[in-house]
Amino acid sequence: xxxxxxxxxxxxxxxxxxxxxxxxxxxxxxxxxxxxxxxxxxxxxxxxxxxxxxxxxxxxxxxxxxxxxxxxxxxxxxxxxxxxxxxxxxxxxxxxxxxxxxxxxxxxxxxxxxxxxxxxxxxxxxxxxxxxxxxxxxxxxxxxxxxxxxxxxxxxxxxxxxxxxxxxxxxxxxxxxxxxxxxxxxxxxxxxxxxxxxxxxxxxxxxxxxxxxxxxxxxxxxxxxxxxxxxxxxxxxxxxxxxxxxxxxxxxxxxxxxxxxxxxxxxxxxxxxxxxxxxxxxxxxxxxxxxxxxxxxxxxxxxxxxxxxxxxxxxxxxxxxxxxxxxxxxxxxxxxxxxxxxxxxxxxxxxxxxxxxxxxxxxxxxxxxxxxxxxxxxxxxxxxxxxxxxxxxxxxxxxxxxxxxxxxxxxxxxxxxxxxxxxxxxxxxxxxxxxxxxxxxxxxxxxxxxxxxxxxxxxxxxxxxxx
Length: 467
Ligand code: HEM
Hints:
By secondary structure, the chain is an alpha+beta fold. The protein contains 17 helices and 13 strands.
């Protein structure tokens, strides 16, 4: 039997292995066999960070929880006592506050619920409506300069680390109009302080049982947050809107922008973007038996854009950078996928954690769910994965991030280079959907899943000119 501390620790080390082992325990008690969350739509209970948590890896249940406020009928959620469900079945603030409040503040749309959230989010949507289009030229310029000076024929490159450097340049340019070369001093300060903040934030998980280490990571993180707040508020107040597209509209005030820039330029946003860029480039350039870079190169521009969008959506589905999200349940409910069985009871006050990796590989929703099919999203009928969540709390940056990944992919293709890499380990191949899973061990061994997914070991690639 796991203790609460062991469960938190095991979850932090590998969510996939943790959830799978719980499902196996469950299947020993009940009929049916669960080998892995991947391909198995299911729910498992655990005690993590002193909370009673129900981890969901069914696509339909995840969708209904994310869209509970918007859908007319909820297929998979019912009330155990009456036919009527309340209007706010799930809240987000209580689920996230412990992890987020000290680091990103309470005045933050991510932590807000109900009416306050709706109004604030609408203002932010208007503020950022034209951001992807406004930012595209500068993102293209930065991507092109970085690729042509870094991906040089004959060079051997650590793909994730290299794309992480690019991701910092893209994010700090997009939200703070900072250039890594021109504003080197402040650029480096923000990057380093954001990394310190994240180390402090994640010291909440008992990664090390050493209380001294725990304390110092946390206090260093809090100091980094203070420094960032000072830098960001001064920087945003002084910015000229002509240079910074984020400031062109005045739907939210500058203090609100400075507060939110702490989140927009966070190390977690950087790691998520780096993860998505790495998975995308691996799929385009390194997939065994399918050279997508060569295929894209032969296509006329319009077809190429459609194919590339499908590749990006398939990458998001199989390899979401953020493995899942949390919600607090505000009334007793029953979750049920399909018509068989009694369903799974979740009591008021418990958490549901939506495990996107499992949900997006739900065989009852996606044909050949575990495998990467580059053309899966050429048809609009295919439901999307949850890389950017769904419903009211959909990621505010999703269109901007998608533009960035699309533009980087286009510029990589234009650079006339090929990437050659070692055969990838089994867990990395499963993460990308190049190989079906044989169990959770490979993922636990080869993939880091928190705070964002990425290969544990460097992905070395050798750059050469296109033949
Ligand atoms: C690859 C990069 C990113 C990924 C995978 C990602 C993913 C997500 C996810 C899954 C959520 C939903 C949280 C929940 O429902 O509990 C979210 C929310 C959010 N994201 Fe992102 N994000 C990324 C980058 C960004 C960037 C660059 C920004 C900057 C604008 C951003 C701003 C936000 C905000 C403000 C929310 C809260 C939205 C709300 O509560 O209504 N994200 N993101």
